[in-house]
Amino acid sequence: MMEYIPLNFPFLAAALLVGISFYILIFKRNLIKLIMGIGMLASGVNLFLVALGYRAGGNAPIYTDVPEGPMVLPVPQALTLTSIVINVAVLALMLTMVILIYRHTGSLDSEKSRKMKG
Amino acid sequence: MRQVIGLIVLLVVIAFLVSGMLPPIMHDFGYPPSDMDDYIIENAQEETGSNNVVTSVVFDYRALDTYGEATILFTAVTGVLLLLRTVKRKEESS
Amino acid sequence: MLSKIVRTVANQLILFILIFGLYVIAHGHLTPGGGFQGGAVIVSGVVMLLVAFSSQELKKSLRERLLSITESTGALIFSILAFAGIGTVFFYNFLVGTPIFGRIPATGPGPGNIWTGGFIPLMNLAVGLKVVAGLSAVVLAMALFSSGEEIEE
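Predict the joint structure of the above. Result:
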């Protein structure tokens, strides 16, 4: 029963996460909500990468005391590790810029800090 | 006007994503086509000498990607510490 | 600065978090984990100290020069290990076969030995140092910038 999952549910969950993130990026104006939308986009892409390499009935790809059976693919998990660290770096820089924008203009609205002055 | 264009773009993106996850384009969940990973699972213990196949992929078979990622982390920390300085300038009164 | 109960509990808990983080870093080639994951565990312990004590108190213990030297040491050890096997290829695993870290474990499932893995444990240590120092400096700088205005560099 565990071997056949119909309709590719984990891929549809990743597509749903990316779709909700696009809705946030198009329709919301608060800067903190935009940053949360970008974080949700990163989570959706990471879930998609890990779900690509699953073998039915497989075990973790570590040889220390592993039970019998096939192993899942290890290369997508290595790529996801790199992707998580890069997302942390980009998120830190975005939060720093929001702190400086709030210090200069005094509001967290993205429409007020759009026009270039001076 | 902006709302209508935004709604059309959102529907197009969601249709494109969902149609790419169904069986003719995407493989079934649980049966990936793989040749490279079979070689890595078989030979990782003799060539690198560690029990953890994911760590040996990150630090031995694909070490150049980890090098670039460490550089990105270093650059991001430098950028954040550069932007958040509080320097008090002493004003000279003449 | 929070109340006395929170400060006492944070003082006792930081020791266990530090030991668990070092365990995850050191056994990166036997169990799930490695440099990045263990570094994130230790940084979460530092954030707990930042919440319990105020950022002004923590600035006296974690000076900026110490964090900068630690991060640069981690990056330097990583580069030296990369260039040490330049005779064959760029990132050649030159410690497999030598008695320092280079035993080869038995093929197939079985308990591992900590003296295996080539130069992977040393690279885990270098990346762990880099992540701890870098992310601690970022968190401390954000807390100091938002709270205190009269700090001179």
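The two ends of chain C are 23 Å apart (CA to CA).
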